[in-house]
Amino acid sequence: MALRKSGEPRIAPAVAAQAVQWLVELQDGTPSRQREEDWQRWRAADPEHERAWQRIESVNRGLRGLNTPTALAALDAPASRGRREALKLLTLLVIAGGGALAMRDSEPLLALRADQSTAVGERRHLTLDDGSTLSLNTDSALDIRFDARQRLLHLRQGEMLVNAVDEARPLRVETPQGLVLLNSGRLAVRLQDSRSQVSLFAGDAQVFSHGQRLALHPGQRLDLDARGSGAAQAVDENSVAWINGMLVASSMRLGDFLAELGRYRHGRIGCDPAIADLRLSGTYPLDHTDRILALLPRTLPVEVRSVTRYWISVHPRAAS
């Protein structure tokens, strides 16, 4: 029997998946007496089945305690992407065991709890109640709170771009590292490695971070971290090409390019340090990451190796 570090028996993935399916079936409607008997027999057939059921009931109670949309809420949409993602997440939580709900602030749960979220490789464009437009990049999660006093966007993970219309209520954009205030303008915010990158393309903004208050003007970018803000830098206009489904590289390091490309696909893209400083330029469609990887050897002295579709590595081209 496999044990987790806490000494708690690990639930086999197949058994966890069965427990999730039983939970969904029992909550989808009123099960027949035959199905209830089948469920009870499944629980009694193996001690691991009963452990899995007890664990999913614990997870279920924990998720129902959240104030925002949860994994179980996603199950209300049959055959939707949300339902499939929720099933996967519930299975992982059952496997993870008693400490699973300590994952409340992990990326999968942040996405499920947020008002708006995108999957890996997905982009979404919204019109807000005030007429502002909002775009979410890949693997992002955002809460929206509009009331009589304010317009609030809370970026939990990922990246957003907002075109804010002028209004008496200020638009507030919150991240773990700070707060941005503006009345109107075009603003991009990206969360990465415990850092918030704030780029202003139009309008004027105020940035608050760890006791600092800074003015941000069009064409400027600030990086916020646990210590506050660094000096303003020039924005990279190409950094928001994702809203049009493109990745634009201008003499970009190959290592940085592959890291950026990896945001738009599941799995891992490794880069041999020997070629990480090679440079490339071009415009690349984000919906075709396999094709981009396949074409790299045509322009650079590299070869792309695939262990699986989800495990890619790029190496120097072997001498012929």
UniProtKB/TrEMBL annotation:
InterPro entries: FecR (IPR006860), FecR_N (IPR032623), Ferrdict_sens_TM (IPR012373). It comes from the Bacteria. GO terms for molecular function: sigma factor antagonist activity. Signal peptide: none annotated. Pfam families: DUF4880, FecR. Residues 18-58 form the FecR N-terminal domain. This is Sensor.
